[in-house]
Amino acid sequence: MKKLILLCLEREVQPTLEEVGRFGQVHVEHLRRPEGEDLEGERARLERTKRALALLPEPEEQADPECSGEEIIASLEDLDGRRHRTREMLEKLRGERKRIAPFGEFDPLQVRELANRDIHIRLYKTAPKQPVPEPDDAVVRVFRRAKGEAFFAVISRSLPKIEAEPIDLPDMSLSEMDEWIRRAERELQEIAQSLKRCACYRHVLEDRLHLLETRVHFHEVERGMEQAEPVAVLKGFCPAEREEELRGLAARRGWGVILTDPEPEDRVPTLIRNPRWVRPIKAIFDMIGITPGYREVDVSMFFLIFLSIFFAILVGDAGYGALFLGMTLAVRAKWPHAPGHLFHLLILMSSCTIVWGVLTGTYFGTGLVPGPLERLQIGWLTGEGADAHLMLLCFVIGAVHLSLAHGWNAIRLMNSVRALSQIGWIGVTWSMFFAVRYMVLNEPFPPAAGWTLLGSAVLVLLFMNPPREIKKNGFGYVTFPLDLINNFVDLVSYVRLFAVGAATFAVAHSFNQMALETGYDGVVSGIVATLIIFLGHTMNILLAAMAVMVHGVRLNALEFSSHVGMEWSGTEYRPFRYEADSAGNT
Questions:
Q1: Cβ neighbours for 482, distance < 8 A, ≥ 6 positions apart
Q2: For 499, phi and psi rounded to 5 degrees?
Q3: Contact residues for 215 (Cβ-Cβ < 8 A; gap 6+)
Q4: Sign of dihedral through CA atoms 282, 283, 287, 288?
Q5: Is the Cβ–Cβ distance between 122 and 166 less than 8 Å?
């Protein structure tokens, strides 16, 4: 990236920004806070359009616009206001009906008229297990008893003191409430139909949204410039390979430009260019909101490879993988123009899950392997001692994963003595692997691993810092024992792959057993068994998906990244682009 300072005449700010926007390669950094009444008005219109679009379902067909976007938004806001008021009224009516239902049908107006004749009827509810009071000179009628509570009425000419919770009279009878509830439900259905009819104009609002986003962005860039008569200043960043093109454009337009290398304190945006096969990982980065820093390494390739492996082990079921793959292909066929990164990622991970499930012989939590696939199972993963073997495999994956991190660092630091320190960390990692194997799997600890640990630790300490930086970065020597412990803990944490994968299988298997125990003696038991299988596996799939996000992403974004030295402190490169509407305005 090159840091850009662009100077233009203040009166030419708008045409200058139009040219920069058409160039489409400058990531703008505001020199002052963008604000102003017109900008706030545009932002308000943008938010109104977003809210209106959120109200509309996907259209079955598109219609030629018979009205403007503003008219559509006003209509949608009116419908949304009616829906909100109707829902509030419906909720209030249902709550009131529930409160009065124990007393049955009666006319509150008649009760109030009797009160004018000194015949008082009061409604009460006792606390749980509290007896119904029996006051003198009064008639008590109990209407319902439920959960230890009694709902009753006291009829009297006086107003005796009753030890119970009073219930206020409603404004209408139960039958009237039911009628108003039906009206409100019909109203909500009519509003839903109206919104569905408006969906054909969704493209009008989408075009309006795109235009408003362009306008808001344009005005934010304009107001973020430093303007002092007669000059205006734009600050930003441009990819280095477009420097000469930008200089040529500046020469033609009469701008003054300064293009320099960024300073260490500059917040430089990160532009990542990955091979096509690595690009699907961007869907995960966008989902969890992380971006590598400008001066950090790009771990996209390793992130994608190991996340696919983690996904396969955590889900661990060929049946689930086939289900994921089928659903992904179906959704992709329905929305062929949607961004493809997420679909490609899901296709890759579903395929890896199918492969792992076939190798371990797991299909929807059962051990029933289709005949032709039985020969594809790996006995080491499915036979005697399979659990210990799977845990060992997880530790091997962890050691390889962390070793790649330090190996990458060693390559980057090839011209520095610190590269030897990274090689030392690789030795520490594999020594910790044998320690973990000894503690968790009760395997013998080879004596050579102890000497390797000692030699590797010495290598790390000797070459952790160049001699001239020892005083500056000496705190690392104090924390070195904690770093060794963290290395051990990070390696142990990879056992979560086995634990969660085993839990996924156990839950699926348990629901299968519950369904079998329900029996198939009749239609009812068959329906119950089917529901158990459907709901059980649905819940298990959701838990497995959560496990991937929690554990699979964590092992990459925290354990691996911390060993690489990444802090994910980056800002995504988002170049300013300008598009004119049909009238030639922004």
A1: none
A2: -65, -45
A3: 42, 586
A4: negative
A5: yes
